Amino acid sequence: EMRLVESGGGLVQAGGALRLSCAASGFPRGLDDYAIGWFRQAPGKEREGVSCLNWSERSTDYADSVKGRFTISKDASENTVYLQMNNLKPEDTAVYYCASVYDDCDDYNYTMHELGIWGQGTRVTVSS
């Protein structure tokens, strides 16, 4: 069974940092043809894409709201994707999810919502 498990959420003050992890398992042919994305859903808002990584090409994509503050990366030996979040703001408060799709990051907001495998989410709270 293909699974994604997020971890690393928590409570942090504005200006602080957190690193989220997304551990992938059960992918029979590995992750080379997959994209891994990070999404978030704040209370009362729709889930939105934050960042995406093409596993084999290492190319990345970021939402404008997090550019320069968040960095997506991978550890291939651990089949894990990280989201390093620096200079956190109260508006970053949300449940963060990772998702994967057998595709690239092009239009990942659509493809992952329609076809993706999702983790259970990890909560991030940024206090002012």
Describe the protein in words.
By secondary structure, this protein is mainly beta. It is 6% helix and 48% strand. It is built from one helix and eleven strands; from the N terminus they run βββββββββαββ. It has one helix at 108-115; strands at 3-7, 10-13, 18-25, 35-41, 48-54, 60-62, 70-75, 80-85, 94-101, 117-118, 122-127. The strands form two sheets. Strands 2, 4, 5, 6, 9, 10 and 11 form a seven-stranded mixed sheet that branches. A four-stranded antiparallel sheet has the order 1-3-8-7, with no helix packed on it. A hairpin with a 6-residue loop joins strand 4 and strand 5 (48-54). The chain is globular. The termini are far apart.
Quick overview:
With 128 residues, the protein is mainly beta. Helix content is 6%, strand content 48%.
Q: What's the layout of helices and strands?
A:
Blueprint: E1 3-7, E2 10-13, E3 18-25, E4 35-41, E5 48-54, E6 60-62, E7 70-75, E8 80-85, E9 94-101, H1 108-115, E10 117-118, E11 122-127
Parallel strand pairs: 2-11
Antiparallel strand pairs: 1-3, 3-8, 4-5, 4-9, 5-6, 7-8, 9-10, 9-11
Give the amount of beta strand, in percent: over 45%
* 3D shape: globular
> Helical segment tally?
1
**Whole-Å distance between the termini?**
40 Å
Features of the shown structure:
128 residues, mainly beta, 7-stranded mixed beta sheet, 11 strands, 6% helix
